[in-house]
Amino acid sequence: MKPLMVELGERSYPIIVAPNALADFPQICQENRIALPKQLVIVTNDTVAQHYLATLQAALAGYQMLVITVGDGESFKSLASYEHIMSQLIAANISRDAAIIALGGGVVGDLAGFVAATYQRGVDFIQIPTTLLADVDSSVGGKTAVNHPGGKNLIGAFYQPRLVVIDPNCLLTLSDRDYRSGLAEVVKYGVIYDPELLASLEQHSQAILQRQPDIIAAVIRRCCEIKAAIVAADEREQGARALLNLGHTFGHAIEAAAGLGEWTHGEAVAAGMIIAAKLSEQLGEMQTSEYRRLRQLLVDMGLPVTPPQLDPQTWWQYMRRDKKVKAGAVRFVIPVGLGQARLTSDIAPELVDQSIQQALTDS
Ligand SMILES: NC(=O)c1ccc[n+]([C@@H]2O[C@H](COP(=O)([O-])OP(=O)(O)OC[C@H]3O[C@@H](n4cnc5c(N)ncnc54)[C@H](O)[C@@H]3O)[C@@H](O)[C@H]2O)c1
Ligand SMILES: [Zn+2]
């Protein structure tokens, strides 16, 4: 399958989306002229290892491999896990020429990526994402991080992988809730960038929910194409990359206010996108019919569209904590119709409050 390139000069890298890519991993590296070093380190977690580690190990027979597993969950995207991995790399005498492979969802990818960015000042890094969110979002673009008790992703680096290999068949074992959460980010790409993607999601919603590999592979590829274009234009989030945060200012507030685990990230982003769309409708930038279409698509994907009931102070308290706040002003991504978006901090707070209220009472 033809690779898709993230164009970043000499740090450019290919993304390969192919069913069975896991078993074909060495051939894919070869086809893309990525010479695998003798020493490989696979970072994964217990859950993913159970499903996919044996396949990858069999494909890589003959290489010297160190497998490091961490616990499952966001709480393991921590400095403690970082230190645990570093200690094992040092104990095993892993050299600077080694490559670190992340096999897992966004948690494993962000953590392993930060290790790769900093072990001996940087070693080669390869992403093999296994959740839909990681396929379409976290594995592409080079943001790596661990959390701190003081906040999410506070410690990290921009560090691009050498290669991203996506096997859509891995999604077959993903929980329904994690799968649907990933779909929220997929819809987001359509809203900010691609009306055709939205139409295709509407047309194939059943096949997508059934995780039909050919359909889902095409959807993942399109999302990666969009993310690659945005990252190539704005690697360090000075401008266009911020549009990827559509629904996230409200979403982060929902996640934080509800407490850990109540809403998944994708669920919160879905409800957040609805508030942003409502705001756009009020500003006359989105038609009511477009708003209804987006709402219906999210409902069809099994995602929540009604935000939780919080008082306005709580919303603002959490939105001001969002990392996109610049010089004290909360910045909003506003969809302009469907297929385009803009970033602004010039929105009357009352309009925001009204949009939240209307999204709440809509049916
Ligand atoms: N770097 C970025 O640009 C970026 C972008 C978005 C999100 N993120 C980060 O990504 C993380 C969330 O990622 P996530 O949603 O993938 O969560 P996750 O990595 O925790 O994976 C979700 C769950 O699915 C399990 N799992 C993974 N693959 C599986 C498979 N194929 N079959 C069965 N189970 C599987 C995991 O063990 C976990 O329990 C957050 O930490 C977030 O900050 C990073
Ligand atoms: Zn997100």
UniProtKB/TrEMBL annotation:
What keywords sit in the KW lines?
Amino-acid biosynthesis, Aromatic amino acid biosynthesis, Cobalt, Cytoplasm, Lyase, Metal-binding, NAD, Nucleotide-binding, Zinc
Q: What is its main location?
A: cytoplasm
Name the source organism: Idiomarina tyrosinivorans
UniProt GO BP? amino acid biosynthetic process; aromatic amino acid family biosynthetic process; chorismate biosynthetic process
| Domain 3-dehydroquinate synthase N-terminal per the UniProt entry, residue ranges | 68-180
Q: Identify the coding gene.
A: aroB
Q: Which family does it belong to?
A: Belongs to the sugar phosphate cyclases superfamily. Dehydroquinate synthase family.
Judged by the first EC level, this protein's enzyme class is: lyase
Q: Which InterPro entries match?
A: Dehydroquinate_synthase, DHQ_synth_AroB, DHQ_synth_fam, DHQS/DOIS_N, DHQS_C
Taxonomy of the source species: Bacteria, Pseudomonadati, Pseudomonadota, Gammaproteobacteria, Alteromonadales
- Function according to Swiss-Prot or TrEMBL: Catalyzes the conversion of 3-deoxy-D-arabino-heptulosonate 7-phosphate (DAHP) to dehydroquinate (DHQ).
Q: Name one GO cellular component term.
A: cytoplasm
Q: Which residues bind NAD(+)?
A: 72-77, 106-110, 130-131, 143, 152, 170-173
Tell me which residues bind Zn(2+). Answer: 185, 248, 265
Q: Which PANTHER family did the record assign?
A: 3-DEHYDROQUINATE SYNTHASE, 3-DEHYDROQUINATE SYNTHASE, CHLOROPLASTIC
Essential cofactor(s): NAD(+); Co(2+); Zn(2+)
- Supply the Pfam families for this chain: DHQ_synthase (PF01761), DHQS_C (PF24621)
Q: What is this protein called?
A: 3-dehydroquinate synthase
